[in-house]
## 1
Amino acid sequence: MRIDIITIFPQMFSTVFTEGIVRIAQEKKLLNIYIHNLRDFTQDKHKKVDAPPYGGGAGMVLRCEPIFKAVESVILDKRSRVVLLSPQGRVLTQKRAKQFLKYQQLILICGRYEGVDERVAEYLADEELSIGDYILSGGEIPAMVLVDVLARLLPGAVGDKQSIEKESFEQSRLDWPHYTRPRVFRRWRVPRVLLSGDHRKIELWRKKKALEKTKENRPDLLKEV
Ligand SMILES: C[S@@+](CC[C@H](N)C(=O)[O-])C[C@H]1O[C@@H](n2cnc3c(N)ncnc32)[C@H](O)[C@@H]1O
């Protein structure tokens, strides 16, 4: 999979994409990431990417010309998907993330300031995508979130396939609790069943705990079954 990111802050990606699974996915050639500076697609000498909103009001808006130019210069073909990161988009879920895997190329447009000229959403982007009901100052962190989620899903990126299949959201429930050494920390013990060696009992206990936590924190997931 190829991912192109269009941003006015290319430096923000340099540490996040050179660590962990995203780095491994790139090393294994499962993922190619290209970061493009929106200012390189401007024509004036000040490389201005924003302007005040028509109709008045606070803040600045990212102009559409450089964004169209940037996307048109990197887009490969029909299997490319152009995504505008926006709080007004459909919310990213694990299920939605998996649907992105069918595209050969994702082009992610990171907004800033008051947002992006609406003609980008209307005539350039295939969809708007939000990472949740809150407002960040730019689309860079949402783009990083999407890339991280996708990198873990690329076949071969995560060593143990099972660890992905058993994670939260995979079976309309949250994950179960995990423990590791030491057996006793301060006065808190690891649940006895996990030390029993009885795999059937351990599985039942894990399912029960996963269900309890889902009921408590995310009862909406249980309705999806
Ligand atoms: C300050 S926000 C603009 C918010 C916009 N005025 C609104 O109220 O919907 C600037 C940029 O950050 C990004 N952004 C902010 N929150 C986001 C979210 N929850 N999901 C995805 N992108 C987000 C978008 O790219 C957006 O254009």
## 2
Amino acid sequence: MDEVDVRQRARAFIAKVDTSDIRTDLTPYVVAANAKVKREELDEGESGYTITKPNGKHVITVNSLETEERQRFTICHEVAHIVLELESSHEEVPSWSYAKRHPNEIACDTFAAELLMPYQQWLSLVPKEEPSLELIQHMADLFGTSFPAAASRFACLSDMPCAFVTMERGAVRYAARSTSLRQTGAWISPKSIIPVGSVAHRLRSSGNSATDTGDVSQDIWFDNWEQGLDLWELSRHYARTDTTTSLLWFDSDDLPGVEVNRFGARVEDDGGLAELTGQLPWPGRSKRR
Ligand SMILES: [Zn+2]
């Protein structure tokens, strides 16, 4: 089951549920999964688990000591285990860590994000403007989710070329890209180190939790990329977990003029053999902010 399958399964599940009040009450999802929720004080680091009774009813237990937004995420994650019929493997690895997470857990997180931020509601409520700290926080508050979850959702559902990068202990773990960015062939290698010159690198180097926005050259972030074009980077560093996130975006005007073949690889313009001129191949397109 790949990520696209998981998202489709989630959307099919959501389609059968009345989601009009879902931003304040997750009960319709819980009922649709033939479950009920119990809140208990669990050990630190344990977010929740599900037990299935002989009659087929599921009991989802969530840690009442965690934040409300965290409990909402846990409920949706447990609903995912039930609906996708995927075994839990919650041992030892903290939930914020992509590092060694079991594929089942990553699938359930993806499913949970779809449930928490149903895409139709998201698209009808997201302001049609460039992202900012305030905009992402507004969306996180609106949907009762964490800031990184809302930023990731913003990148996935945005019309503009946009990416959300999650980093841990100085290395890239995951990059979610908008459709228009994927179509350019823009690629950020998982496991690469946070690039020098990025806002993320600067914040993490300071050693403190902080948030900042700045413009950086696109080739700092994207592999095999042209020079001379800039992008915006809204980065947030969480010192306690040594986790860093960056939302990257740019105007369509600032896209290099390239084509991508159906395998996602970038295609050179083959409209006849170009003469070697010694000139850089991006005349006049660059627009620095
Ligand atoms: Zn799980």
